[in-house]
Specification:
63% of the residues lie in helices and 0% in strands. The protein is mostly helical and 240 residues long. The chain folds into two domains: 3-87; 95-235, Homeodomain-like (Arc Repressor Mutant, subunit A), CATH 1.10.10.60. The termini are far apart.
């Protein structure tokens, strides 16, 4: 029975470390990034400390047993904190209400649009950089000739996103909507449109499209140009 706390400690430490590092590069919130570093350090020190402490205790002693229990409790507390603090806020929102999570994009023609934001939107609108499969924050920062931390801040504070993948996903769906309602593309297969916007799987595209638009791509296309445009204007707004 005394081996159980040791096993649980290893499991909790592993999950805690995973949640600290998962989607590290896509997190746009500076406070969460710093929290990830601190918590990953706490987990590492906890594992090292428990290993060193328990080596000096007799393997079958009651002190060894309660030592494992104590370190397991610490790892569990860290894991619970990570699950609450680092989880994307949209995980708690039903899929049918995910439309409200889409952020309006500022227009490049607005006088208050700063140069960095204008350059980002230029790369998206005209450079179609979002169509690159597996586009990373670093690749986008390099294309903009901006430090990565500044791009994180721009997307988070200027555009309102907490996660790079959510930002990229929203913009790809915007692009797909434009293509689906384009009369000149009525014969283009939906799979082709999905791949052209950067998705690598039709299932991922269909699922993501339904989450945001509330219907599959085929149903959106069947609405026709004006109705589809009106729906997109409500769900995928452009800042006035």
């Amino acid at each position: 029975m005394r081996v159980i706390p040791a096993i649980l400690q290893t499991i909790f430490a592993g999950f805690s470390l995973y949640w600290s590092l998962a989607n590290w590069s896509g997190d746009l919130v500076e406070t969460r990034l710093r929290a990830r570093i601190v918590l990953a350090s706490v987990i590492a020190l906890n594992m090292i400390g428990s290993s060193l402490l328990l080596r000096v205790l007799a393997q079958d002693s009651i002190a060894n047993y309660y030592g494992h229990v104590a370190f397991t409790a610490v790892n569990l507390a860290v894991l619970l904190f990570l699950l609450v603090f680092l989880s994307d806020e949209s995980l708690a929102v039903p899929l049918k209400t995910k439309q409200a999570l889409v952020r309006p994009l500022p227009s490049t023609s607005l006088p208050e649009t700063d140069p960095a934001t204008a350059k980002l939107l230029e790369l998206l609108e005209h450079g179609h950089i979002h169509r690159r499969p597996s586009l990373t924050l670093k690749e986008l920062a390099d294309a903009m000739q901006l430090p990565e931390y500044r791009l994180r801040k721009l997307i988070h504070e200027r555009l309102g996103y907490q996660n790079f993948n959510a930002f990229l996903h929203d913009y790809r769906i915007r692009d797909a909507c434009r293509q689906l309602r384009d009369p000149a593309m009525t014969r283009v297969p939906i799979l082709t449109i999905a791949l052209s916007t950067g998705y690598q799987s039709i299932n991922t595209f269909n699922r993501g499209f339904r989450e945001i638009m509330g219907m599959p791509p085929s149903a959106y296309r069947s609405l026709g140009g004006e109705k589809a445009r009106e729906l997109s204007g409500k769900i995928l707004p452009q800042s006035p």
